[in-house]
Amino acid sequence: MTTPNCPVPHREDELVMMGHGAGGRLTAELLETLVLPALGGPPAGPLEDAALLPGLPDLTVTTDSFVISPLAFPGGDIGSLAVHGTVNDLAMRGALPVALTLSVIAEEGLPLAELRSLLGSAGKAAHEVGVPFLTGDTKVVGHGAADRLFLNTTGIGRRIHGLSPSASRARAGDAVLLSGPIGLHGTAVLSTREGLGFEADIASDTRPLHRLVAALAPYGTHVHTLRDPTRGGLAASLNEIARDSSIGVEIEESALPVPPAVAAACDLLGLDPLIVANEGCLVAFVSPETADGVLAAMRSLPEGSGAVQIGEVAAGPVGRVVLRTLVGARRVVDMPLGEQLPRIC
């Protein structure tokens, strides 16, 4: 009898598991116990979506790898996703993109027509953002050695004057804002891969967010923290911010923008929308007196038309995220542990 695969096996073998790449607790443990020590120790501050270049504080850099199955899905594909994800990581540090790199790892047997289409999508996405690809690399590996196509990117950005968001800058009393609905990307990818039928009603939200962040520039230092809730979903992002800023966060279930089709898919599959990946929304921690203005700025753009306040920084245990349910009870929103939706970003 075969043993079913489990994202968090009940053993402690020294092996890499799928859950190590899910963006939750196992990812954090891998970084803290293996990756960062091997590379010379942790940075002085929190782990951010993008880093400031030493000696060049106006410039930021980020790098990312994109592995997704299927390669195309409702609303996008691995090509556009690679561009949007890189641009958004720069934006979360208050930076606009100025240059990209793209490295391609293709598996033997991938149809050239498919590769041409996916790379054309990346080129189209970069053109729409207005950022060039400056350099890159191409490798081909043997059949079965990769999941058809992997893309790796690096992005260089220039910080927007007055904005200096960081995962460690959220403060007591801050309003917690969300720019749009959650759960669209993860459920669209999963439904397409597994043939669940939801893809007719759900499309990925993948899109660039740099214009949305630029619209927040007038609020300057009142914009404390920005994060796009990708791997691990909103739950992971809020837990990371609560940890890095040493605060407690309370959100309202009634305020969470979960599309009906996403709610139906999650109910059927036993998933929590809070831990499903997103690729086109951001969470912002801002001074409470500017919350209405920031929401209005977000809603002035298509990518922020559904912006809402979902909670606030509240008194409570440091590093804890709490959800006030529809019936008024409170439950702790933990950092996701294992891998529920592999190959989504």
Structure explained in plain terms:
By secondary structure, this protein is of the alpha+beta class. It is 27% helix and 24% strand. The chain has helices at residues 25-38, 78-91, 112-129, 184-194, 210-214, 233-245, 260-269, 291-299; strands spanning 51-53, 56-66, 72-73, 76-77, 95-107, 133-141, 149-159, 175-178, 223-227, 248-252, 283-286, 308-314, 321-324, 330-332. Strand 1 (51-53) and strand 2 (56-66) form a beta hairpin. Helix 2 runs parallel beside helix 3. The radius of gyration is 19 Å and the shape is globular.
What fraction strand?
15-25%
Number of strands: 14
Oligomeric state: single chain
How much helix is in the residues? 25-40%
Helix-strand makeup class = alpha+beta
So how many helices?
8
Tell me, rounded to a whole number, the average pLDDT.
92
Rg measurement, Å: 19 Å
Net shape: globular
Q: Mind summarizing the main beta sheet?
A: 7 strands, mixed
The separation of the N and C termini measures: 33 Å
Secondary-structure element series:
HEEEEHEHEEEHHEHEHEHEEE
Q: Could you name the ranges where pLDDT drops below 50 across 5 or more consecutive residues?
A: none
Strand order of the largest sheet: 9-11-8-12-10-13-14
Task: Furnish the topology, listing elements before pairings.
Elements: H1 25-38, E1 51-53, E2 56-66, E3 72-73, E4 76-77, H2 78-91, E5 95-107, H3 112-129, E6 133-141, E7 149-159, E8 175-178, H4 184-194, H5 210-214, E9 223-227, H6 233-245, E10 248-252, H7 260-269, E11 283-286, H8 291-299, E12 308-314, E13 321-324, E14 330-332
Parallel strand pairs: 5-6, 10-13
Antiparallel strand pairs: 1-2, 2-7, 3-4, 5-7, 8-11, 8-12, 9-11, 10-12, 13-14
Helix pairs in contact: 2-3
